[in-house]
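Onboarding guide, step 5: your first structure request.
Type a short instruction followed by the sequence, for example:

Predict the 3D structure of this protein.
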Amino acid sequence: MSILNIVTHPSYFLRTKSSVVKKKYIPTGEFQKLVDDMLETMKHAQGAGLAAPQVGKSLRIIIATDKGKPFIFINPKLYRKSFKKVKAEEGCLSVPGVWGTVKRHAAVSLVALDREGSKVKLRATDMFAVVLQHEVDHLNGILFIDKAKKIGKPPQL
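The system replies with structure tokens like these:
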């Protein structure tokens, strides 16, 4: 596995809509290596999620973590978004050194393919729902700074 370079704002990769991944491409060694490299890159960068455009690939692939466990979603679509919204402090590996308050749906349903090409559906709440929305936004050329209020430096830990 390799650690990939993370593309940073204002790269055009971050502002273009990503292409759908064809199902026949999923079992290939090239695709599986990309997914492994994305997992390694996210882990190395200590991110909560990563989208393919963030590593210079205009493909509809995201990784999102829930309670430390990474999930791979190919061609994800969000539906059944809750009426209730939550405000969360967000940062992004592609916009280093910047944080902002973003209002997102408190719960979302997602349908996608997993890394074997099988259909998966799930309902996400809390921080997992926020991460999914953030990463799917990347696939559509949207950054959290487009939605954030009170943009500033990261909170002091």
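Each response can be followed by summary notes, for example: The helical segments are 29-45, 126-139.
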